[in-house]
Write a structure and sequence with these properties.
This protein has 259 residues and is mainly alpha-helical. The protein has helices at residues 65-89, 102-114, 119-134, 137-164, 170-200, 208-233, 250-258; strands at 12-16, 25-29. A two-stranded antiparallel sheet has the order 1-2. A hairpin with an 8-residue loop joins strand 1 (12-16) and strand 2 (25-29). The longest helix is centred in the last third of the chain and has 31 residues, at 170-200. It is globular and about 50 Å long. 35% of the residues are buried.
C-alpha cells in the first residue's frame, strides 16, 4: 500500500570487524515500524567482501596445548641461538662484537604474540650462545638480561598505550612500535649490555659511551628489521596483541621454516 514506508528505502548494512583474522558480522536492519532483525554472517561467506583469502589451517593445532608450548619454546630458543651464530659470523671482527642483535627481535615478536613471558625462550637461547661461544657465565647472564628487559618493557608500555587509546590508523601503530623499539627497548638493552660486558671483562679498551651507542644501534636494528618480519609472517599486527587468542601454530611453523 502507498501509505506504508518502503523497507528497502531505509535499509542499512554495517560491517563490524574487531580484527582481520577474526569473524565478522553484518547487521542488516530494515525498519518497519518498531521491528529490527539481526543476521550474523561468517567471514568468507558469500555476503562478506572477498578482500582476504581464507586462512589456512594451522598444522600444529591438533597437538595438545602443553606440547605446543614446549615445542614453541624450544624452537624459539633454537632460532635465537642460531640467529646469534649467524650475526657473529657476519660481524667480521667488529670492535663491538656484532652488527645486529637478532635475539632481542625474536623475543619481542614472541612476547608480543604470546605474552611477555614468551620473551624468555629467546633470551635463554641468546644466553646459551654467549656461554658456549665465550665460556663466561657473566656474559651469558648479560645476554639473558639484555635480550629480555627491553622487549618486556616495550610490550607492557605498548599494551597500556593501546588500552588507553587504541591506534586509529595503521600508521599510528607503526609509529608507536618504532618509538618503543628505538627509544625504550634498545637503550635499556644497551645499558644492560654495556654494564654487563664491562663487569665480565670484555672490551676493556672500548669507551663505555661508544659501547652504549653501538649496542643501542645494534639492538634497534635487530628490533626494527627482524621483529616486524616475524609478526608479518605470523599474520599478526602491531596495533594489538594475540595473547588472549586461541593457541596458534603459525609462529611455530614460521620458526621451523626459518630453521
Amino acid at each position: 500500500p502507498s501509505g506504508l514506508p518502503d523497507p528497502r528505502a531505509d535499509a542499512r548494512v554495517v560491517l563490524i570487524s574487531d580484527r582481520p583474522s577474526q569473524s565478522c558480522c553484518r547487521t542488516a536492519r530494515a525498519r518497519t515500524g518498531q521491528k529490527a532483525r539481526t543476521v550474523p554472517v561468517e567471514l568468507n561467506s558469500p555476503l562478506s567482501p572477498p578482500d582476504r583469502p581464507p586462512l589456512p589451517p594451522n598444522s600444529t593445532a591438533s597437538l595438545p596445548a602443553g606440547l605446543q608450548s614446549v615445542l614453541r619454546a624450544v624452537l624459539m630458543a633454537a632460532l635465537s641461538f642460531a640467529g646469534c651464530l649467524v650475526a657473529r659470523l657476519l660481524a667480521f671482527e667488529s670492535p663491538v662484537g656484532l652488527l645486529v642483535w637478532p635475539a632481542g627481535a625474536i623475543a619481542l615478536a614472541s612476547g608480543w604474540r604470546y605474552g611477555p613471558a614468551w620473551v624468555l625462550p629467546a633470551a635463554v637461547g641468546a644466553a646459551g650462545w654467549a656461554f658456549v661461544g665465550f665460556e663466561s657465565l657473566r656474559f651469558a647472564l648479560t645476554a639473558l638480561l639484555a635480550t629480555s628487559a627491553g622487549p618486556i618493557v616495550a610490550i607492557t608500555a605498548m599494551r597500556k598505550l593501546n588500552a588507553w587509546k587504541p591506534a586509529d590508523y595503521r600508521m599510528d601503530a607503526v609509529l608507536r612500535f618504532l618509538l618503543m623499539c628505538g627509544l625504550v627497548a634498545a637503550p635499556l638493552d644497551a645499558a644492560i649490555a654495556t654494564l654487563g660486558l664491562r663487569a665480565a671483562g670484555f672490551m676493556p679498551v672500548v669507551h663505555a659511551a661508544h659501547l652504549f651507542i653501538a649496542w643501542w644501534l645494534i639492538d634497534a636494528l635487530g628490533l626494527l628489521l627482524v621483529a616486524p618480519a616475524l609478526l608479518a609472517w605470523a599474520r599478526d599486527g602491531l596495533s594489538h596483541s594475540r595473547e588472549n587468542d586461541e593457541p596458534s601454530g603459525a609462529l611455530l611453523d614460521t620458526t621451523a621454516i626459518v630453521l
